[in-house]
UniProtKB/TrEMBL annotation:
Keywords: Lyase, Secreted, Signal. It catalyses: Eliminative cleavage of (1->4)-alpha-D-galacturonan methyl ester to give oligosaccharides with 4-deoxy-6-O-methyl-alpha-D-galact-4-enuronosyl groups at their non-reducing ends. The keyword Signal applies. Residues 1-20 form the signal peptide. SUPFAM superfamilies: Pectin lyase-like. PANTHER family: PECTATE LYASE 18-RELATED (PTHR31683), PECTIN LYASE A-RELATED (PTHR31683:SF16). Belongs to the polysaccharide lyase 1 family. GO terms for biological process: polysaccharide catabolic process. Residues 85-308 form the Pectate lyase domain. Its EC number is 4.2.2.10. The keyword Lyase applies. This is pectin lyase.
Amino acid sequence: MPSIKTILVWAISFAPSVLSAAVPVKRAISSVVSGTPPGFAGGATGGGNAKPVYPTTIADLKKYLTSKDPQVIVISGQFNFAGSEGTQTLKACNTYQCTPEKGGQAMLNTLNGCTTATYDVKIDTAAYQGINVQSNKTLVGKNGATLNGKGLRLVGVSNIIIQNIKITNLNPKYVWGGDAITMSGTHDIWIDHVETSLTGRQHYSFGQTANHWITISNSFINGKTTNSASCDGHTYWGEEMVGVDDSITWYKNYVYMTNGRSPALSGGTLLHAVNNVFDDNTGHLIEGGDANARGIFEGNVFKNIKTTVDAGFKGKLFGATSANAASCKTALGRNCQANAYTSAPALNRADTAFFTQFNGFSIVGAATADSIAAAVPKSAGNTL
Ligand SMILES: *[C@@H]1O[C@H](CO)[C@@H](O)[C@H](O)[C@H]1NC(C)=O
Protein backbone atom coordinates (compact mmCIF):
# COMPACT_ATOMS: atom_id res chain seq x y z
CA MET A 1 0.00 0.00 0.00
CA PRO A 2 1.43 3.44 -0.83
CA SER A 3 2.09 5.72 2.11
CA ILE A 4 0.00 8.83 2.74
CA LYS A 5 3.01 10.86 1.64
CA THR A 6 3.19 9.02 -1.68
CA ILE A 7 -0.51 9.64 -2.28
CA LEU A 8 -0.08 13.32 -1.50
CA VAL A 9 2.91 13.63 -3.82
CA TRP A 10 0.88 11.93 -6.51
CA ALA A 11 -2.11 14.16 -5.90
CA ILE A 12 -0.04 17.31 -6.01
CA SER A 13 1.88 16.25 -9.13
CA PHE A 14 -0.94 14.90 -11.20
CA ALA A 15 -4.16 16.43 -9.98
CA PRO A 16 -3.47 20.01 -8.95
CA SER A 17 -6.95 21.11 -9.91
CA VAL A 18 -8.60 19.01 -7.21
CA LEU A 19 -6.41 20.31 -4.40
CA SER A 20 -6.53 23.92 -3.35
CA ALA A 21 -5.17 25.73 -0.34
CA ALA A 22 -8.71 26.17 0.94
CA VAL A 23 -9.27 22.44 1.26
CA PRO A 24 -7.42 21.09 4.30
CA VAL A 25 -5.84 17.67 4.05
CA LYS A 26 -8.44 15.17 5.17
CA ARG A 27 -7.62 13.36 8.38
CA ALA A 28 -9.05 10.00 9.28
CA ILE A 29 -11.84 9.79 11.84
CA SER A 30 -10.69 8.12 15.05
CA SER A 31 -11.68 4.50 15.52
CA VAL A 32 -13.29 5.44 18.86
CA VAL A 33 -16.10 7.03 16.79
CA SER A 34 -18.89 4.72 15.60
CA GLY A 35 -19.60 5.14 11.90
CA THR A 36 -19.09 8.19 9.71
CA PRO A 37 -21.12 11.41 9.46
CA PRO A 38 -24.21 11.05 7.26
CA GLY A 39 -25.52 13.96 5.20
CA PHE A 40 -24.26 17.52 5.12
CA ALA A 41 -21.48 17.03 7.73
CA GLY A 42 -19.90 14.27 5.61
CA GLY A 43 -16.51 16.03 5.77
CA ALA A 44 -16.27 16.29 9.57
CA THR A 45 -13.33 14.47 11.13
CA GLY A 46 -13.20 16.15 14.57
CA GLY A 47 -9.91 15.54 16.32
CA GLY A 48 -8.91 13.12 13.57
CA ASN A 49 -6.63 10.36 14.72
CA ALA A 50 -5.09 12.22 17.64
CA LYS A 51 -4.22 9.87 20.48
CA PRO A 52 -7.36 9.59 22.66
CA VAL A 53 -7.40 11.22 26.10
CA TYR A 54 -9.60 9.97 28.95
CA PRO A 55 -10.45 12.78 31.39
CA THR A 56 -12.15 11.73 34.60
CA THR A 57 -12.73 15.12 36.25
CA ILE A 58 -14.83 18.05 35.06
CA ALA A 59 -11.72 20.26 35.14
CA ASP A 60 -9.80 17.96 32.79
CA LEU A 61 -12.78 17.55 30.49
CA LYS A 62 -13.11 21.34 30.21
CA LYS A 63 -9.36 21.70 29.64
CA TYR A 64 -9.36 19.28 26.70
CA LEU A 65 -12.52 20.68 25.10
CA THR A 66 -11.23 24.25 25.26
CA SER A 67 -7.59 23.66 24.31
CA LYS A 68 -6.27 24.78 20.93
CA ASP A 69 -5.09 21.31 19.93
CA PRO A 70 -7.02 18.67 18.01
CA GLN A 71 -8.27 16.18 20.58
CA VAL A 72 -10.06 12.86 20.68
CA ILE A 73 -11.71 12.88 24.11
CA VAL A 74 -13.35 9.76 25.51
CA ILE A 75 -15.50 10.09 28.63
CA SER A 76 -17.27 7.51 30.72
CA GLY A 77 -20.12 7.84 33.26
CA GLN A 78 -21.28 11.01 35.06
CA PHE A 79 -19.59 14.38 34.89
CA ASN A 80 -21.36 16.34 37.57
CA PHE A 81 -21.12 20.07 36.88
CA ALA A 82 -24.16 20.98 38.99
CA GLY A 83 -23.05 23.35 41.75
CA SER A 84 -19.43 23.34 40.56
CA GLU A 85 -19.47 27.07 39.77
CA GLY A 86 -21.77 28.04 42.62
CA THR A 87 -25.05 29.89 42.26
CA GLN A 88 -25.97 33.42 41.27
CA THR A 89 -28.98 35.61 41.87
CA LEU A 90 -30.77 36.95 38.80
CA LYS A 91 -34.04 38.74 38.11
CA ALA A 92 -36.96 36.73 36.76
CA CYS A 93 -40.62 37.28 35.96
CA ASN A 94 -43.75 35.22 35.46
CA THR A 95 -44.75 35.43 31.80
CA TYR A 96 -45.93 31.91 31.10
CA GLN A 97 -49.02 29.98 32.02
CA CYS A 98 -47.84 28.83 35.44
CA THR A 99 -45.00 29.42 37.87
CA PRO A 100 -42.03 27.10 38.51
CA GLU A 101 -43.69 25.90 41.72
CA LYS A 102 -46.63 24.64 39.64
CA GLY A 103 -44.58 22.92 36.94
CA GLY A 104 -44.15 26.03 34.81
CA GLN A 105 -41.19 28.22 33.92
CA ALA A 106 -40.31 31.77 34.87
CA MET A 107 -38.28 33.90 32.47
CA LEU A 108 -34.91 35.30 33.45
CA ASN A 109 -34.59 38.97 32.56
CA THR A 110 -31.39 38.14 30.64
CA LEU A 111 -32.44 40.06 27.52
CA ASN A 112 -34.57 42.58 29.43
CA GLY A 113 -37.62 40.70 28.21
CA CYS A 114 -39.62 41.01 31.41
CA THR A 115 -42.67 43.23 31.09
CA THR A 116 -44.16 42.19 34.44
CA ALA A 117 -42.72 42.56 37.95
CA THR A 118 -39.34 40.90 38.47
CA TYR A 119 -38.14 39.03 41.51
CA ASP A 120 -34.84 37.44 42.58
CA VAL A 121 -34.09 33.80 41.80
CA LYS A 122 -31.04 31.70 42.44
CA ILE A 123 -29.72 29.76 39.47
CA ASP A 124 -26.94 27.28 38.97
CA THR A 125 -24.03 29.10 37.32
CA ALA A 126 -22.48 26.05 35.62
CA ALA A 127 -25.71 25.33 33.75
CA TYR A 128 -26.24 28.96 32.71
CA GLN A 129 -23.44 28.86 30.14
CA GLY A 130 -21.97 25.88 28.31
CA ILE A 131 -18.37 24.91 27.68
CA ASN A 132 -16.80 26.79 24.73
CA VAL A 133 -15.67 23.85 22.64
CA GLN A 134 -12.77 24.62 20.28
CA SER A 135 -12.18 23.40 16.70
CA ASN A 136 -10.97 19.95 15.70
CA LYS A 137 -12.44 18.03 18.63
CA THR A 138 -14.01 14.61 18.95
CA LEU A 139 -15.97 13.89 22.13
CA VAL A 140 -17.20 10.33 22.53
CA GLY A 141 -19.09 8.95 25.51
CA LYS A 142 -19.07 5.43 26.92
CA ASN A 143 -21.05 3.84 29.75
CA GLY A 144 -23.89 6.34 29.87
CA ALA A 145 -21.59 9.37 29.70
CA THR A 146 -23.54 12.37 30.98
CA LEU A 147 -22.83 16.06 31.40
CA ASN A 148 -25.07 16.85 34.35
CA GLY A 149 -25.67 20.58 34.59
CA LYS A 150 -23.54 21.78 31.64
CA GLY A 151 -24.19 22.33 27.94
CA LEU A 152 -21.79 22.77 25.02
CA ARG A 153 -21.24 26.00 23.05
CA LEU A 154 -19.79 25.77 19.56
CA VAL A 155 -19.20 29.36 18.53
CA GLY A 156 -16.90 30.43 15.67
CA VAL A 157 -15.41 26.93 15.46
CA SER A 158 -15.34 24.04 13.02
CA ASN A 159 -14.81 20.33 12.53
CA ILE A 160 -16.31 18.80 15.67
CA ILE A 161 -17.80 15.38 16.36
CA ILE A 162 -19.87 14.76 19.50
CA GLN A 163 -21.20 11.25 19.97
CA ASN A 164 -23.02 9.19 22.57
CA ILE A 165 -23.44 11.58 25.50
CA LYS A 166 -26.35 12.94 27.49
CA ILE A 167 -26.74 16.58 28.50
CA THR A 168 -29.28 17.36 31.22
CA ASN A 169 -30.33 19.53 34.17
CA LEU A 170 -29.82 23.07 32.89
CA ASN A 171 -31.90 25.23 35.26
CA PRO A 172 -35.17 23.84 33.85
CA LYS A 173 -37.26 26.21 35.96
CA TYR A 174 -35.96 29.24 34.08
CA VAL A 175 -36.17 30.26 30.44
CA TRP A 176 -32.61 31.37 29.51
CA GLY A 177 -31.38 29.08 32.28
CA GLY A 178 -29.27 27.00 29.87
CA ASP A 179 -29.13 25.62 26.31
CA ALA A 180 -27.90 22.06 25.74
CA ILE A 181 -26.06 22.63 22.45
CA THR A 182 -25.45 26.04 20.88
CA MET A 183 -23.92 26.57 17.44
CA SER A 184 -23.10 29.89 15.82
CA GLY A 185 -20.61 30.63 13.05
CA THR A 186 -19.62 26.97 12.70
CA HIS A 187 -19.01 24.43 9.97
CA ASP A 188 -18.51 20.68 9.66
CA ILE A 189 -20.23 19.65 12.89
CA TRP A 190 -21.60 16.15 13.51
CA ILE A 191 -23.72 15.54 16.61
CA ASP A 192 -24.72 11.88 16.91
CA HIS A 193 -26.49 9.77 19.53
CA VAL A 194 -26.89 12.63 21.99
CA GLU A 195 -29.76 12.88 24.46
CA THR A 196 -30.77 16.31 25.73
CA SER A 197 -33.31 16.86 28.52
CA LEU A 198 -34.42 19.22 31.30
CA THR A 199 -33.13 22.35 29.61
CA GLY A 200 -33.98 25.89 30.69
CA ARG A 201 -34.05 26.90 27.10
CA GLN A 202 -33.10 25.31 23.77
CA HIS A 203 -32.20 21.71 23.20
CA TYR A 204 -30.46 22.97 20.03
CA SER A 205 -29.84 26.65 19.42
CA PHE A 206 -28.42 27.80 16.10
CA GLY A 207 -27.28 31.40 16.45
CA GLN A 208 -27.65 33.85 13.65
CA THR A 209 -24.12 33.61 12.24
CA ALA A 210 -24.17 30.93 9.54
CA ASN A 211 -23.64 27.26 10.37
CA HIS A 212 -22.62 25.21 7.33
CA TRP A 213 -22.53 21.46 6.84
CA ILE A 214 -24.16 20.37 10.09
CA THR A 215 -25.60 16.92 10.79
CA ILE A 216 -27.57 15.98 13.87
CA SER A 217 -28.37 12.27 13.83
CA ASN A 218 -29.70 9.51 16.08
CA SER A 219 -30.32 12.03 18.83
CA PHE A 220 -33.05 12.07 21.44
CA ILE A 221 -34.68 15.44 22.01
CA ASN A 222 -36.32 14.41 25.26
CA GLY A 223 -38.79 17.19 25.90
CA LYS A 224 -40.31 15.60 28.98
CA THR A 225 -39.70 18.15 31.68
CA THR A 226 -40.47 19.06 35.27
CA ASN A 227 -40.98 22.70 34.21
CA SER A 228 -42.73 23.59 31.00
CA ALA A 229 -43.63 26.99 29.52
CA SER A 230 -46.87 25.36 28.38
CA CYS A 231 -47.42 23.94 31.87
CA ASP A 232 -48.00 20.40 30.63
CA GLY A 233 -44.68 18.60 31.07
CA HIS A 234 -43.68 19.23 27.43
CA THR A 235 -40.86 21.60 26.51
CA TYR A 236 -41.46 24.48 24.14
CA TRP A 237 -37.75 24.90 23.42
CA GLY A 238 -36.86 22.20 20.90
CA GLU A 239 -34.66 23.19 17.98
CA GLU A 240 -34.07 26.84 17.12
CA MET A 241 -32.81 26.83 13.50
CA VAL A 242 -32.59 30.52 12.70
CA GLY A 243 -29.12 31.18 11.23
CA VAL A 244 -28.72 33.48 8.25
CA ASP A 245 -27.45 30.71 5.97
CA ASP A 246 -27.45 27.37 7.76
CA SER A 247 -27.38 23.92 6.20
CA ILE A 248 -28.55 21.11 8.46
CA THR A 249 -29.21 17.41 7.99
CA TRP A 250 -31.65 16.25 10.68
CA TYR A 251 -31.56 12.47 10.54
CA LYS A 252 -33.07 9.66 12.63
CA ASN A 253 -33.76 11.87 15.62
CA TYR A 254 -36.50 11.21 18.16
CA VAL A 255 -38.31 14.43 19.02
CA TYR A 256 -40.46 13.58 22.02
CA MET A 257 -42.85 15.56 24.24
CA THR A 258 -42.41 19.04 22.82
CA ASN A 259 -44.84 21.93 22.56
CA GLY A 260 -43.14 24.25 20.01
CA ARG A 261 -39.96 24.92 18.02
CA SER A 262 -39.62 21.37 16.78
CA PRO A 263 -38.08 22.91 14.80
CA ALA A 264 -38.30 26.66 14.56
CA LEU A 265 -37.20 26.75 10.90
CA SER A 266 -36.37 30.33 10.16
CA GLY A 267 -33.56 32.69 9.12
CA GLY A 268 -32.04 31.32 5.91
CA THR A 269 -31.81 27.70 6.99
CA LEU A 270 -31.73 24.86 4.46
CA LEU A 271 -32.93 21.72 6.23
CA HIS A 272 -33.05 18.09 5.14
CA ALA A 273 -35.17 16.21 7.70
CA VAL A 274 -35.02 12.47 7.07
CA ASN A 275 -36.33 9.45 8.98
CA ASN A 276 -37.08 11.25 12.23
CA VAL A 277 -39.86 10.34 14.66
CA PHE A 278 -41.84 13.31 15.98
CA ASP A 279 -43.95 12.02 18.84
CA ASP A 280 -46.36 13.67 21.29
CA ASN A 281 -46.50 17.39 20.60
CA THR A 282 -49.15 19.42 22.39
CA GLY A 283 -48.60 22.74 20.57
CA HIS A 284 -46.97 22.84 17.15
CA LEU A 285 -43.90 21.34 15.49
CA ILE A 286 -42.68 23.53 12.62
CA GLU A 287 -42.79 27.29 13.10
CA GLY A 288 -40.87 30.29 11.74
CA GLY A 289 -41.43 33.76 10.39
CA ASP A 290 -38.78 34.04 7.63
CA ALA A 291 -39.53 33.43 3.95
CA ASN A 292 -35.94 32.25 3.29
CA ALA A 293 -36.15 29.14 5.48
CA ARG A 294 -36.44 25.93 3.47
CA GLY A 295 -36.93 22.30 4.35
CA ILE A 296 -37.49 18.90 2.78
CA PHE A 297 -39.18 16.46 5.15
CA GLU A 298 -39.14 12.84 3.98
CA GLY A 299 -39.49 9.40 5.51
CA ASN A 300 -40.46 10.87 8.88
CA VAL A 301 -43.08 9.56 11.30
CA PHE A 302 -45.47 12.11 12.80
CA LYS A 303 -47.42 10.72 15.70
CA ASN A 304 -49.80 12.36 18.20
CA ILE A 305 -49.12 15.86 16.94
CA LYS A 306 -51.59 18.68 17.50
CA THR A 307 -50.31 20.99 14.76
CA THR A 308 -47.61 19.94 12.29
CA VAL A 309 -47.02 23.37 10.69
CA ASP A 310 -47.84 26.51 12.63
CA ALA A 311 -50.29 28.80 10.80
CA GLY A 312 -47.80 31.69 10.81
CA PHE A 313 -45.02 29.71 9.11
CA LYS A 314 -43.47 31.80 6.29
CA GLY A 315 -40.77 29.56 4.78
CA LYS A 316 -40.79 26.93 2.06
CA LEU A 317 -41.56 23.30 2.84
CA PHE A 318 -41.77 20.04 0.99
CA GLY A 319 -43.54 17.16 2.72
CA ALA A 320 -42.98 13.97 0.75
CA THR A 321 -45.89 11.72 -0.20
CA SER A 322 -45.94 8.67 -2.45
CA ALA A 323 -47.54 10.87 -5.12
CA ASN A 324 -44.89 13.63 -5.12
CA ALA A 325 -41.80 11.55 -4.14
CA ALA A 326 -40.33 11.52 -7.66
CA SER A 327 -40.01 15.29 -7.78
CA CYS A 328 -37.19 15.10 -5.19
CA LYS A 329 -34.81 13.81 -7.88
CA THR A 330 -33.75 17.34 -8.82
CA ALA A 331 -32.85 18.08 -5.19
CA LEU A 332 -31.49 14.79 -3.89
CA GLY A 333 -30.62 12.75 -6.97
CA ARG A 334 -33.19 10.18 -5.90
CA ASN A 335 -36.86 9.91 -5.03
CA CYS A 336 -38.01 10.95 -1.58
CA GLN A 337 -39.59 8.56 0.90
CA ALA A 338 -43.12 9.45 1.96
CA ASN A 339 -43.80 10.70 5.49
CA ALA A 340 -46.24 8.72 7.67
CA TYR A 341 -48.86 10.09 10.05
CA THR A 342 -50.76 8.74 13.06
CA SER A 343 -53.08 11.21 14.80
CA ALA A 344 -51.17 14.05 13.18
CA PRO A 345 -52.08 16.61 10.52
CA ALA A 346 -50.21 16.05 7.24
CA LEU A 347 -47.31 18.31 6.26
CA ASN A 348 -49.11 19.02 3.03
CA ARG A 349 -46.78 21.60 1.49
CA ALA A 350 -44.90 20.88 -1.72
CA ASP A 351 -42.69 23.86 -2.56
CA THR A 352 -39.97 22.81 -5.03
CA ALA A 353 -38.45 26.10 -6.21
CA PHE A 354 -35.61 25.76 -3.64
CA PHE A 355 -34.57 22.27 -4.72
CA THR A 356 -31.55 23.48 -6.74
CA GLN A 357 -30.06 24.76 -3.46
CA PHE A 358 -29.27 21.17 -2.45
CA ASN A 359 -26.61 21.08 -5.23
CA GLY A 360 -23.18 20.15 -3.91
CA PHE A 361 -24.35 18.81 -0.55
CA SER A 362 -23.78 15.27 0.58
CA ILE A 363 -27.24 13.71 0.81
CA VAL A 364 -28.08 10.93 3.24
CA GLY A 365 -30.14 7.96 2.05
CA ALA A 366 -33.70 7.52 3.26
CA ALA A 367 -35.55 4.42 4.45
CA THR A 368 -39.32 4.03 4.49
CA ALA A 369 -41.10 5.70 7.38
CA ASP A 370 -42.59 2.35 8.42
CA SER A 371 -39.19 0.73 8.70
CA ILE A 372 -37.84 3.34 11.14
CA ALA A 373 -40.98 4.01 13.23
CA ALA A 374 -40.12 1.59 16.05
CA ALA A 375 -36.33 1.55 15.65
CA VAL A 376 -35.56 5.27 15.96
CA PRO A 377 -37.11 5.81 19.43
CA LYS A 378 -35.14 2.79 20.69
CA SER A 379 -31.75 3.74 19.29
CA ALA A 380 -31.84 7.56 19.56
CA GLY A 381 -29.77 9.11 22.33
CA ASN A 382 -26.65 7.81 24.07
CA THR A 383 -27.44 4.16 23.45
CA LEU A 384 -24.17 3.05 21.83
C1 LIG B 1 -8.14 22.40 12.48
O1 LIG B 1 -7.45 21.47 11.69
C2 LIG B 1 -7.24 21.91 10.35
C3 LIG B 1 -6.67 20.74 9.56
O2 LIG B 1 -5.51 20.21 10.17
C4 LIG B 1 -6.33 23.11 10.36
O3 LIG B 1 -6.12 23.59 9.04
C5 LIG B 1 -6.99 24.21 11.21
O4 LIG B 1 -6.12 25.29 11.33
C6 LIG B 1 -7.36 23.68 12.58
N1 LIG B 1 -8.17 24.70 13.23
C7 LIG B 1 -7.84 25.25 14.38
C8 LIG B 1 -8.71 26.35 14.86
O5 LIG B 1 -6.88 24.87 15.01
